[in-house]
Prior knowledge:
By secondary structure, the chain is an all-alpha fold. Helix content is 72%, strand content 3%.
Amino acid sequence: MFRLLSIEFHKLKYSRASKVLSIIYFGLLTSIALIATVKFEFGNFKLHFAELGIFNFPYIWHFNTYAAGILKFFLLLVIVSMMSNEYSYKTLKQNLIDGLSKKEFILSKFFTVIAFALISTIFVFVVSLILGLIYSDYNETSIIFSEMEYLIAFFVKLVGFFSFGLFLGILIKRSAFAVAGMIIWLIFEAIFLKGCLYLNFRGTENTSEKVDSIMQFLPLESMSNLIKEPFSRLSVIRSAANTMGEAFTKSYDVEFLSILIVLFWTFIFIFSSYKLLEKRDL
């Protein structure tokens, strides 16, 4: 494993685009801390984000993993460009000539995906821990390390997402088209397919639940379901909703089924990548 990883990181070391994108990504992850400094003042109305409780333990694990998940497209560009460069610079063919099997080649890419996801998760953990220790109103150890399942969900989400990007990179060969393919699939899931399902179940009882029960098995939707939006958990949002007679009943838990679905898709993407590479004339 370490031999295969060293080969991949050696390639990335000499890829200027990959280094720039990685720096931007981790720089943006660090910039989550800047939210704590944001203040708005309109006359007597003052808003300080840090005072809303977004950096309170254990809520911070939910908020920061959700926010960091939005930035995953930057590392997706690294993954697909990494695969595109294999074809552009013919390093894939050279690796195979030098004795690397196609199975080892795919494993090297998958290990790199896991490494990126693990590094990102550790990074978010450290940033969140520091912010929480500074701004959280609750500093008991039992509270600090509760709801850590959001970090597990974040890791699984990144592995699945990057595996999808790896598959598209092998399938399409060009990084720009691979990213475009990801966006098209996102639109297909979010708008076209979901719209068709709503039309199909329109007028029936529990329409939304029926649509969601089907959508949860799709790749990007299942990844999205791992970490649900955290904003409606804030007490200020709930208080405002209660004032208007609304109540939130949704569950914010990390569901085991969602993790299994994403792991299943991860296997499908990696296995399909291997089969595609195995049949392709290089």
